[in-house]
Amino acid sequence: MKVRILGCSGGIGGRQLRTTSLLVDNDILIDAGTGVGDLALTELAQIDHVFITHTHLDHIACLPLMADTVADMRDKPLMVYAQQASIEILRNHIFNWSVWPDFTEIPNVEQPFLRFETIKIGQVMKFGGRTVTALPANHTVPAVGYHLDSGNASLVFTGDTTICLDLWQSINKIRNLRYLIIETAFSDRERKLAVMSKHLCPSMLAEELANLQHHAEVFITHLKPGQIELTMQEVEECINEFKPRLLQNNYQFEF
Predict the structure, then answer these.
(1) Which helix (H) or strand (E) holds 252?
(2) How deeply is 34 buried, as exposed, middle or buried, from its count of CB atoms within 10 A (0-12, 13-18, 19+)?
(3) What's the gap between Cα 96 and its chain centre?
(4) CA–CA distance, 213 with 98 (Å, rounded to integer)
(5) How many domains does the chain have?
(6) How far apart are CA 213 and CA 24, in angstroms?
(7) Would you place residue 14 in the very low, low, confident or very high pLDDT band (cuts 50, 70, 90)?
(8) pLDDT given for residue 122 in this prediction
(9) Domain of 229?
């Protein structure tokens, strides 16, 4: 199982700042932020499954554009997996014929270019020897994280979340956890904003990682572009045991 980071920033700008998206092998996408726009047409057309953590724009920005771009290059629908509440948001506010055409009806309802499939927390989706499992998250809109398991090892991507005991209870049940990608959107000087927006800052991250019972490699994602150095310095000062690293575009995990 290979995971390529297409985007992991909390904002845009320059060559490196792309918002959240992870490409799993060649056919699965976790979130569809602006990083998806760097893929070639042939790469876009190979993606059959898109798993959405939540519906904030930095995680779905390229989904409607992608559906349009690859529609005539595919012989089966693009499958989009999300919680029912997230699907309703996408239907009502994106694929609503006002912001973007409803590709679940194009060219017709029986054979559309895009299909939604509801997932629930704890549900395991199997793709050959690979599994994708939705994990609890705590954000300002309905949200999940994802557990990717190759059979040999696992990677967890928390998506956007704040303090969430249920998440750690789920993670601690994963016996073969190798990688943990977790957000830290704000520096400690903006802790109040992190709490209000249901994100993490370094001191909150330290409190959350105290719940982790594995010795996984920890990577930090979703940093604000103007606070990357400050936030990572605070992370290093708060957390010594796990030695978290900054996640960067084009980083690849193989497990």
Answers:
(1) strand 252-254
(2) buried
(3) 23
(4) 47
(5) 1
(6) 26
(7) confident
(8) 98
(9) 2-254
Question: Above 80 in pLDDT, residue 15?
Answer: no
Query: 215 is written with which tokens?
Result: 């010795």
What are the tens digits of pLDDT across the range 55-94?
999 999 999 999 999 999 999 999 999 999 999 999 999 9
Q: Which stretches of 103-248 are assigned E, i.e. beta strand? A: 114-118, 124-127, 130-136, 144-149, 154-157, 177-183, 217-221, 245-246
23, amino acid identity: L
Using CA atoms, how far residue 180 sits from 131, 173, 195, 250, in Å, is: 16, 14, 22, 17
The model scores a pTM over 0.70: yes
CATH number of the domain to which 128 belongs: 3.60.15.10
Rounded to whole angstroms, the Cα distance separating 3 from 29 reads: 9
Residue type, 214: H
